[in-house]
């Protein structure tokens, strides 16, 4: 992989033959060679007008055009302003509602729905049958090249307006409630198992995560005296038959 140029890398990314992150011995790691190739494409690209490609008024690097879909790919790209950039993989059965954006190096697996105003950032990895609700922001991670991107594993449900950035991993079946913010600076408290997740620790399988607040610490005495609180996330339960039933409605939309 280290000898491939950006064009070869993009071709392999778009077919899913290579990925910008891989699971090795149960842990997600960045594919450094792929990320370096993507970064090199920005240096090699020249600004062009994409009007002749059907996008009047849009200017970008000539080697990073938006993809064009055909019925044979089996992807529902609903009209209305969405875009999938060169070098991203979108599998059969994916639904993309407008407007949405999938950036270079991203991987979106079968049966996933990307709802309106959702972003799948550069190199983000989205599993099978994931639902990214309206306004979800999945951050991209290109640099540093050794840092794994945001990972959303199979059957996860990400609620409206959730923000997941800085390489956070959400494991299989987890449910992220609307408005939750997950980053390495936001603590996550597992109220079921009565523990605090380590910094950057993945959200566990089947966890149901809701927004929360926590008191400020003693270093911010004035804020503490004012009764102010800071953002956090709370695991309040793990999925069961009742919570699964509440998520079944989306199957009727496919």
Automatic annotation (TrEMBL):
The keyword Acyltransferase applies. It comes from the Bacteria. Keywords: Acyltransferase, Amino-acid biosynthesis, Diaminopimelate biosynthesis, Lysine biosynthesis, Repeat, Transferase. GO terms for molecular function: acyltransferase activity. PROSITE patterns: HEXAPEP_TRANSFERASES. Coiled coil: none annotated. Residues 8-42 form the Tetrahydrodipicolinate-N-succinyltransferase chain A domain. It holds the Pfam family THDPS_N_2. One of its GO terms (biological process) is diaminopimelate biosynthetic process. NCBIfam families: PRK11830.1. This is 2,3,4,5-tetrahydropyridine-2,6-dicarboxylate N-succinyltransferase.
